[in-house]
TrEMBL record:
Recorded superkingdom: Bacteria
Protein name per Swiss-Prot or TrEMBL: ABC transporter ATP-binding protein
Annotated source species: Paracoccus fistulariae
Annotated ranges, domain ABC transporter: 333-566
Keywords recorded for this protein, A-Z: ATP-binding, Membrane, Nucleotide-binding, Transmembrane, Transmembrane helix
GO molecular function (one): ATP binding
Subcellular location: Cell membrane
Pfam families hit by this protein: ABC_membrane, ABC_tran
Topology in membrane: Multi-pass membrane protein
Length: 566
């Protein structure tokens, strides 16, 4: 895990060494100050020379100023190092997330993912900055302070050292407990975000059912669990801080008493006594520091583990090493003995054999749950067929780079997802970088012109989160406009189940008919009226193809289709 963690420093080694170097210098100065005070008391004071005293004071002040400069560098550029690493990790996490499969997202909770990309990584940034620097300086000051104490008075130094194992044991014990409590807090934050995301995202449903109090009650549960997790952490923090504080004070008092004896017997100078007491503080600071960072490290480590887990998630559907960019496709599609299951115990599609010629319009009908949507989701490889093979223009899907395949398949689904921007941005999503003229033309082809003309802001109208400010029929037409812009040779239309008024339906049908021209079009039809003109109709039942033929042929057959059409 550590090697992986340190690999993130590589692009920022300049910053790292700057931060590290300044931190080390500052650590050395911290060691020098008690020695300077000793010298001041033992050698300067007895001379009674004011000019020398003032010169020493100015010198000391200059050293403090240098240290202040060093600390400025450590705080700003050190944190810059941390945020750089955090930014890099966040970018990788987001990029990885955008590539994970539909199957993975079927089970994911968006709220938890948001927590991973925001909070987890924030904590990692802190550790990335403080981690190595703190560890090194802790050891340096620890050893340095001990050597200086030993030099001033070996017996006293040994007394101080005796308590070290007990303090280290405390650090290790509380470090482990802190890690566990932070893991629990992270889990609660995830729950929190899931609840927020679902309750607020679905607030219209909540209100429609009058279930506000129910949601508030559920939220109160999450809120209380989060509070409890935080309280557990604070309890560990409080105990650990108090014990460390007491440990340090105990040693200081012992040193004071024993040291006073040495001073009285003439074995220790007053300056040495004061310097020694100051060094005890410096000696234990690394331990105190570690005690303080046992609060931040575990958070960072817990966050980094979750980050690693996320990056290790297999995208499942990715480009094969020898995959090629799909050439411009004509759109001959072939399913050969295709089978599929979301869950191995429950096959959804079985033995699908189907040849579709380029330019053909094929409609898929059948009862709800028959597997129509699933079958067509295999074509852009949103899910991978678990059996058989699908080819386009004779090329197996797995041999084409995903992007080059998906670029050539247009999709107009039942529930259109719009982003919270403007109408223009949403249409342009069909082909990023499309010109204004192309966007307007696509809007016209999708029968959106009259709507746009009535909107005060026209194409610049903000559509609201998920397009809530547009009607269902309007959203569908935005999806159609996207498909026009994309201009793919293959088209998948999942007809909306919700009934539209006849005028809107006519407009959408006109747009869809225009869109289908010259493309291989696969339509999932819920209303039989719209598919009479399809070249062929595929009737699906229980994940299998039950009938294939034209409208007239299927009617004459007096099978399932005839029954559906009746
Ligand atoms: N993401 C998924 N994970 C697990 N099972 C799923 C998933 N999507 C669909 N299913 C199941 O697969 C079966 C086929 O669903 P599918 O959506 O393909 O049917 P459909 O014929 O398109 O139905 P409809 O006409 O209602 O849209 C259903 O039993 C459904 O419960």
């Amino acid at each position: 895990m550590l090697r992986d963690f340190f690999s993130y420093y590589r692009p920022f080694m300049g910053l790292f060494w700057l931060d590290f170097g300044c931190a080390v210098l500052s650590g050395l100065l911290e060691l020098a100050f008690p020695v300077a005070i000793t010298g001041f008391i033992d050698h300067l004071l007895p001379q009674g020379d004011w000019s020398l005293t003032i010169a020493a004071a100015v010198g000391l002040l200059a050293l403090y100023a240098v240290n202040a400069g060093l600390l400025t560098v450590v705080i700003y550029w050190g944190h810059k190092l941390g945020i750089n690493i955090e930014t890099e990790m966040r970018a990788r996490a987001f990029d990885h997330l955008t590539r994970l499969s539909w199957r993975w997202y079927d089970r994911a909770r968006t709220g938890k993912l948001v927590a991973r990309v925001t909070r987890d990584l924030e904590e990692i940034g802190e550790v990335a900055h403080h981690g190595p620097e703190d560890a090194f300086i802790a050891i340096m000051t620890f050893v340095g302070a001990f050597a200086l104490m030993f030099w001033i008075n070996p017996q006293l130094a040994v007394i101080v050292a005796l308590i070290v194992p007990a303090m280290l044991a405390l650090v290790v014990f509380y470090g482990g407990r802190m890690t566990r409590t932070w893991q629990a807090i992270y889990a609660r934050v995830g729950d929190f975000n899931v609840r927020l995301e679902e309750a607020l995202g679905g607030v219209r449903v909540v209100q429609a059912f009058g279930n506000e109090s129910h949601e508030t009650h559920l939220f109160a549960g999450d809120n209380a669990r989060y509070r409890q997790a935080k309280l557990d952490a604070y309890r560990v923090m409080a105990a650990s801080s108090a014990l460390h504080y007491m440990g340090l004070r105990l040693v200081q008092v012992i040193v004071m008493v024993v040291g006073a004896g040495f001073v009285l017997s003439g074995d220790l100078t007053t300056g040495g006594f004061v310097g020694f007491l100051l060094l005890v503080g410096v000696f234990y600071r690394p331990l105190e520091k570690i005690a303080a960072v046992i609060e931040t490290y575990p958070r960072g480590i817990a966050g980094f583990r979750r980050y690693q887990e996320l990056l290790a998630t297999d995208p499942e559907i990715a480009d094969a090493p020898d995959a090629i960019d799909a050439p411009a496709l004509r759109g001959d599609i072939s399913f050969r003995d295709v089978g599929f299951a979301y869950d191995p115990d429950r096959p959804i599609l079985r033995g699908i054999d189907l040849e579709i010629r380029a330019g053909e319009t094929v409609a898929f009908v059948g009862h709800s749950g028959a597997g129509k949507t699933t079958l067509l989701a295999l074509l852009p490889r949103f899910y991978e067929a678990t059996q058989g093979q699908i080819t386009v223009d004779g090329l197996p899907l797995s041999q084409m780079r995903l992007n080059s395949l998906r670029r050539q398949i247009g999709l107009v689904s039942q529930d259109v997802f719009l982003f919270g921007g403007t109408l223009r941005e949403n249409i342009a999503y069909g082909r990023l970088g499309a010109s204004d003229e192309e966007i307007r033309q696509a809007a016209a082809q999708a029968q959106l012109s009259s709507l746009i003309a009535t909107l005060p802001d026209g194409l610049e109208t903000v559509v609201g989160e998920r397009g809530v400010m547009l009607s269902g029929g309007q959203k569908q037409r935005v999806a159609i406009a996207r498909a026009f812009l994309k201009n793919p040779p293959i088209l998948i239309l999942d007809e909306a189940t919700s009934a539209l008024d006849s005028q809107t339906e006519r407009e959408i049908q006109t747009a869809l008919d225009a869109l289908a021209v010259g493309r291989t079009t696969l339509v999932i039809a819920h209303r039989l009226g719209t598919i009479r003109n399809a070249d062929r109709i595929v009737v699906m039942q229980d994940g299998q193809i039950a009938e294939i033929g034209s409208h007239a042929q299927l009617l004459a057959r007096k099978g399932i289709y005839a029954a559906l059409a009746a």
